[in-house]
Amino acid sequence: MNLEKKIMISIRFLGADREVTGSCYLLDYDGFKVVVDCGLYQGDDELEKRNSQDFLFDPQDVNALLLTHAHLDHCGLIPKLVKHGFRGKIFLTQPTRDIFEITAYDTAKIQKEDAMRDPQSQIIYNAGDVVNSLAKCVTVKFNEKMKMTDNFFVTFKHAGHILGSAYLYMEIEDKKILFSGDLGHKGQSIIKPVDYSEDVDYLIIESTYGNRVHKPKAESEQELIDTVNDTVKNQGNIIIPSFAIERTQELIYNFKDFIKEGRMTPVNVYIDSPMAGKVTQVFSKYVNEYNNEAKDIVLKGDNPFYFEQLKFIQDAKRSKRIASRNIGKNKKGESIVVIAGSGMCTGGRILTYLMRNLPLSRSSVIFAGYQAEGTLGREIVDGEKEVYIYGKKVSVRANIVTLGGFSAHGDKVDLLDFISNMQKKPKKVFVCHGDEQISLEFADTVKSTFGIEAIVPYYNSQEVLE
Ligand SMILES: [Zn+2]
Fold first, then answer.
1. With a cut of 50, which residues of the chain have pLDDT below it?
2. Residue 31 has what pLDDT?
3. Rounded to the nearest whole angstrom, what is the distance from the C-alpha of residue 245 to the centroid of ligand 1?
4. Which of 39, 216, 280, 422 could pair covalently with 23 via S-S, beta carbons 3.0-4.6 A apart?
């Protein structure tokens, strides 16, 4: 009789299942519980309700938390987890820790402001919970095997998505489990590309763009240059809703390059986002995480995030002044480029710029990132002719441009390459973090390309890894 104890590993899917937001997984290895990512739900009202509901597990029972990267839909509920009794350590890379600090304080501040405006609005956590969360952070180096318990090791490897982003390569007894987090798109301007992994038994993979191929970067770059040059010629403004992390730094990096090369009309570029300013400072700290091209710029003594026409705006009053300048009352003036948040136009300073520029046919609005269903950004991209901002009807006459090549998310080709490069292919793939139809399509593609089992888990389902 075989008395050897059978090991038990299970994964519960607790977010970003058949949707793109609120990433969270609970891995259980014989009673040792690890949460992978603990993200905020964003965009959809119905889903956002989950932000204030109790967790589907007891935070006090969790031994450790592993964070792939500092996007809010992956880290935004960590302070809530701590508030609700999580006592373990939070493992993450150093740049991720720095960015998490910025985004978590910002989220706590927004909740406080929302609650002051609207008594119905709930405060999920406050700055004190952020302080307590930061005290639990333990930073880890890329590519160093870290021991969680006997027979359970984790390695953080480059995911090539945003600064500090990692995927998690777990070795539990004889099983290799890989949580992809979000994977990057080849050809991103600043950070190192994805590392490949050789040997995987179970793969949990994102599928944000699992059904499409991004436009080539060079094509998107040319489109950006043409849009800016043409709009300046027409004396319009260029409004770019942008995520404060990575996308904004990529745009700064590219604007500098294009203006320097003489391909783009020198135009004042305003980064109207205090958070983007802080994150850009974090980028300046981690030159070792740059790709070779970006590193070369620094080695030559230049700063990839500085050029003459670039201006960071911190102050809200100054933001309002700039938003109202050169526009309205038929006054045509000097064109400006504004990069501001939020990236999907769900709030933030971008709304004032949109309100003033969407009705102007001479202005352009450029979308360079993912626009989730249910967001204002998605409505504009989908071609709505009238939208509502702060409860007011706004007509859309501006030139609307979508640049796929700037995505920080891998497309279908990047995701399939990630699997192709595994010497030993997984025996089972769990497809997560995508709109339902896209995840299902990508699971089919994985099955037909590699002949391996691929499923799309439901929210709160559990899988036992045999
Ligand atoms: Zn992400």
1. 328-330
2. 96
3. 9
4. 39
Q: What is the pTM of this model?
A: 0.92
**Ligand 1 centroid distance, CA of 3 (Å):** 44
Q: In what order do the strands lie in the sheet with 268-272?
A: 310-312, 268-272, 336-340, 238-241, 364-367, 399-402
What structural domains does the chain harbor?
Answer: 9-212+408-465 (3.60.15.10), 217-406 (3.40.50.10890)
Decide if 416 contacts 449 (C-beta within 8 A).
yes
What's the pLDDT score for residue 334?
A: 86
Determine the distance separating the centroid of ligand 1 and the alpha carbon of 409, expressed in angstroms: 7
Phi and psi for 397 in degrees, rounded to 5? Answer: -120, -10
Which of 43, 121, 34, 124 has its CA nearest to residue 77?
A: 124
Q: How far is the CA of 291 from the centre of ligand 1 (A)?
A: 19
pLDDT at res. 61 = 97
Q: How far is the CA of 24 from the centre of ligand 1 (A)?
A: 13
pLDDT digits (tens, 9 = 90+) for 345-369: 988 899 999 999 999 999 999 999 8
Q: How far is the CA of 424 from the centre of ligand 1 (A)?
A: 26
Q: What is the pLDDT of residue 327?
A: 54
Cα of 297 from ligand 1 centre, angstroms: 26
